[in-house]
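Sample A.
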Amino acid sequence: MSKQVKQLDRVIIRFAGDSGDGMQLTGDRFTQESAVFGNDLVTLPNFPAEIRAPQGTLPGVSSFQVHFADHDILTAGDAPDVLVAMNPAALKANLGDLPKGATIIVDTHDFTGRNLIKAGYADNPLDGLGEPGSPLGEFFVHPVDLTGMTVEAVKEFGLSRKDAARAKNMFALGLLSWMYGRPIESTITFLEKRFAKVADIRDANITAFKAGWNFGETTETFVVSYEIKPAPMSAGTYRNITGNLALSYGLVAAGVQSGLPVFLGSYPITPASDILHELSKHKAFGVTTLQAEDEIAGVGAAIGASFAGSLGVTTTSGPGIALKSEAIGLAVMTELPLLVIDVQRGGPSTGLPTKTEQADLLQAMFGRNGEAPVPIVAPQSPGDCFSAALEAARIAITYRTPVMLLSDGYLANGSEPWRIPELADLPVIDPNFATERNKTVVAKDGTETEEYWPYLRDEETLARPWAIPGTPGLEHRIGGLEKGEGHGNISYDPANHDFMVRTRQAKVDRIADSLPPLVVDDPSGEANVLVLGWGSTYGPIGAGCRRVRKAGYHVAQVHLRHLNPFPKDLGEILSRYDKVLVPEMNLGQLSLLIRGKYLVDAIGYNQVNGMPIKAAELAEAIGNLVAEAEGVTVDLTPDPIAEEASK
């Protein structure tokens, strides 16, 4: 039987099933195959919040979405073109996200009466396919007994039916790998290594994977396969990387480039825990990790490490930042380098622990007692977490200050191709430790003595000297009480406190002098509307602006990495545009800061549903603002690439 091969520009696939069905592994392997093939890609893992929700229920559905293309893409996609659903709950939980004409591959094995009831179905949605009134009538549905065929394919290995059925995710992966022409060698090698110690499990998974591929090749159910060519990329060595992994590598690189040992004091918390896991593997690079008994102990140990001459790091999410706030204030007062990594998630309190949000910006800015300014850095993509970590370390070490790095769950768990940088291109960070006394003190009798004053400041950066404890002659006081200017002894003098508060603020403000000019993406130079973003909204904003420009309208984009202090040219850039739109996954936190500092009527586009902003919906909002600013009617014609991919 001859099969048709159809060329596509891009495809969005979502694997969905129970949290025990291996959907994250399946999606990750498909992603790795696509990366090896050379496609550009972006992923969106979506985990259930419950540790182990009842099997077959909606709260227990786990999914993994991958968007891959033959051109540069910015997001994991608004809606999947293909859904692979392993049970009724997975189908019901994801059906509302599918566009008309999407393809559904569904495992029929678990569509029993009991499982349908658990998923909230009164009737089997697979009944009556192709007939008028079918609930799945708008989609191309392929019912396949993935579980049954998997069990049959691996029966030679003598596994129990339960263990055999666990390989169904590999059968599904094999089928999808055939459908989209993915190279399968990397997955086979992966399975051989992962299950090397259990030969039957290894062989069963490989057999199920190959059986899925062969099923696609031989069955009449699937008569079309698809080809998505590699994407053009600049020369270099690439790997697929998640935000948490890139951030971990960035911290390792910061230690190497500064010559400092890295100390991580951390308490496990979703979605930041993988940074602790990864850094624990890199003792060879001078990394020490401590899994502390709580959040406060973690940051306290990191501050102690910084005092002792290491690069102190603590990782957490929003609830942990709340607990660490007093200790961060201590780092502000002692003026020690400290990296505080906040991988943001839905809140408040425990909130949505496995979902994404950008709602910790104001906490990072103001969530401490007293005037305690802290620089804030935010990466824009998973791979950019590497560079953001290096930048945060540069600021912390150069200016002797704690620095907040605001990642989020979307960046942390999502992935993209990342060009591995050349070591020669990484910045060198000089800790410039104090090695000798720095103050000549003249007594009343005219005698001079040399002393070490820990709060004398560098004229350019206003940073205080950093002396490693035990350096002869450089003993000094340190702690949370206010310091006297220069000498650093405890001071309750009102004028001194006012001076020191202003000096610490001025030190943070000086960081703006070291920042490069902002990049304004305004191709035509005729835009009246500026879209201003930060963090993980970079992808949706970029994709939304592309769509508006493709329709023939003008819009500019600026994305902020530095949120405190703002870049020096931001105010001038804002003044060029009639309208400023600020998309955020919160209720308007950057908008509030922009309004307050620059008196600009920033317009918020706000979403707090635990998911990334959808590019198509954002494009509509941008288009409406362009129409208002230019007095025209904006018609955003459908994206032909997206239309073709959904067929």
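Sample B, a different protein:
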Amino acid sequence: MSSLPLDLAQAGLTVGAAAALSGIGLVVCYRATGVLNLAQGAIAMITAYAVRQTIVVWHWPRALAVPVCLLVFAPAIGWTLDATVFRRLQRRGAGPVETLVASLGVFVLLVGVAFLLWGPTPLGDAPSLLPSSPWAVLAVVAVLGAAVTVVGRWTPFGTQVRAVVDNRRLAELSGVDADRVSSVGWAFGAFTAGLTGAVLAPGLRLDPYGLPLLVMETMAVAVIAGLRSIGVAVASALALGVLQSELTQFHPGGWAQSLLQAVGANLFVLALLVAVLVLPLRFAGSERRAYQAVLTGPPIMAASEASPRAFATRIGCAALLLLPFAFRPDDLRAALQVPALALVLLSIVVVTGYGGQVSLGQAGYAGLGALFTGLLAGGGVLGLPAFPAPVALLVAVVIAAPLGLLVGWPAIRRRGLALALTTFAVGTAISRLVFQQPAATTGVVLDRTGLLGQDRFFYGLELALLAAALLLVRALRRGRIGRALGAMRDHEAGAAAAGVDVPRLKLLAFVVGAALAALGGGLLGLGGQAFDPNAFDPVLGLIWFAAVVVFGADSAVGAVLAAALLVGLDSGTVAGLSTVVVGALALLLGRMPPGGLAGLARRWDRGASASDRATALPGPGEMRLTALGRQLAARLPVPAPAAAPSAEAALPGFPALPPLAGERLTARNVTRRFAGVTAVDGVTLAVPPGRITALTGPNGAGKSTLFDCLSGAGRPDGGQVLLGGRDITRLPEHARARLGLARTFQQLAVFPGLTVADNIRVGAEQAASGRLASSAVEETEAVLRLLGLAVLRDHPAADLPTGTLRLVELGRALAMAPTVLLLDEPAAGLDRRETALLVELLHLLADGGLALLLVEHDRELVDELASGVHVMRAGRAEFQSGRAVDRTRGAGGVSGAGGVSGVGGVARDA
């Protein structure tokens, strides 16, 4: 008995060493390519199958089979993926979410190939390549870890790797062969993945789902290491492996025994869950704008919805769903899965396509819906009586929906890859700690009796629920919440500055998504009349996510078609074929228009009206001028007018700006520190109404940090921010925006997935709670007319030139009826004529009573605009008198506490 802990420790070292191999591969691949390779588990699985095939089936000698599989086959997979998929993405600067989708496509494709070649039946005869003692595997880990460390720190190649990851383009200009670096990284990562699969397979039953998921669970060690430290990854892997093994010697009995067994068997899952929830995950690359480039296509506009192609698509989809009524009973039973799965996929559309939150754990919520439905129908919940199946289903949805907060709450401070890992960890934990535990699934009853027992009636009920969900999702997409979701998806900071309560909106998206997934999962369980944990496997969740992205993450119809494809191909052909098809299409996403197949269809619809768009857009010689710019070009001298014309003279044919009820913005001793460095050091300034105040200074002086402290994007460590005498220091950004503090950004903060009108309407709708929808529409129309954007109202913002987008961003701020407007380098990217137009507009806004604070490097522009200048140096600000001409038209132009605010003339209480 005394040797038992030592024996268990040795067994744990074997598991830990295999996890360390996987962690080394993930870290090296990420450090060399900047890609978090979620396909690592699939590469491990396919290599383990190859080892078994060559040795057990083809009877190759081990001395030949092992080198061919581990040193040729596995690295060749990595090299091929780099050359055919990821190299193209890296060359064009693809964001991390785009590479995530590509790696998921590889994962799904390899899983489908294994399913087709070897079938779903688990195989228990995988050959062992190393002795049962852990020391051989530990020796391999030590050699690989030391080699990677030496190469990374003390060789020119290691320097080249760091250069390519930090800035691929700059590294190439310096003479580095970036393609060779990334190819080596992918080949080595695939080699370690194959070695991991070969080491783990003998102790497991080899199947297309189990081994990939197990390897993905070991991703915990790479996350703990921050995807950087080989030593931390190895140490954490060994510690978790030993701890997992040691827990098996404890037998407390009763419910504690079941709990301890569940924790011990799933220790890597729990470690991944804790790591993603607790550690401050920071990955290289910008993730703020990464969603729209791949997951969503052009805005869904009324013209495209009314097009013959869109009408035909809806009719075809309806016919497809009605067709099973004519099927034979056996075929109809298989078709019961289609509406239920469509509801699950629709939940991904809401969370990811509409809200921009990458969710890989929706299968977990679907399983909870099925489990709760069965428990309620079987009377297994807190002694409650057994509910009829329809009632049990609806109550299960109500119970499961708030559980969306399990992911929604971490999503408030997570995005991109960090959020994807969080959702995957939550979904896997639900599967392993709930669905796989007999105690949790005892008493589940999913029988259908009476009319529900008739498949045709049940299928009709599913269609009715799906139709209701589609109408709900359509209303969500078309309404105020839908526009706010689109803004949050495209640019979170811009959405918050427009008054969108981003944290609350994220929670809403996850709660609605959880409800839809639970409804679909409950119907899946009732359709099969049994609770099958494998039907909600996390690997299936990854396949479902990939299918939604392929068909269009923001397309509700695409979700229905994806469900029909997944069920139809597997039921009517060979099981696993749908997975191969989805994986192949996911790899082609980089060559498709944004939005997958739905985006391709919308591009065709837009192509049909290309001539109409051509007449709406500026001509070839005027591509950087809006309609207003073209009208003013002949009247405004370049670079600026010498004298100030009246508003009516400057804007012929457009409504004059009404007086704006400006308020004073004040900063008192504002201080902001980062890691011991004082970026803003006791700055005090005032922004009076009816004036343009400038903030200037060299790069790194603290201007942007001060700007964030004023707008609410950052919270000061000391001092106060006052708006009209009210202390707003602790208020979040969206709350300040709704009080009248609007801002623009140095880097354009437009929403490319929305039209020009919807970009501006987001600001109008979020400006003040209680504003009527008609008032928001009027405000939007007034801004469109004022800025000469009415002709582009239904045009996607993604297709417009920089000068026009600057006006769109300014228009969104004006639609909020602001009292203070913060402008961060508004002339960046503008030509001389557009700058002249901007000068004229800003003077008119100040003349109307608005308080403006301008961050600008161009001293000539500052002298022309500002009546007061604050110069920042090393975090401190010094006031200087401005030289701008006083253009105020009298007391009526600079109102105090009363007056009218907003471009459209909407009254605001000061």
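Observation for Sample B: The radius of gyration is 30 Å.
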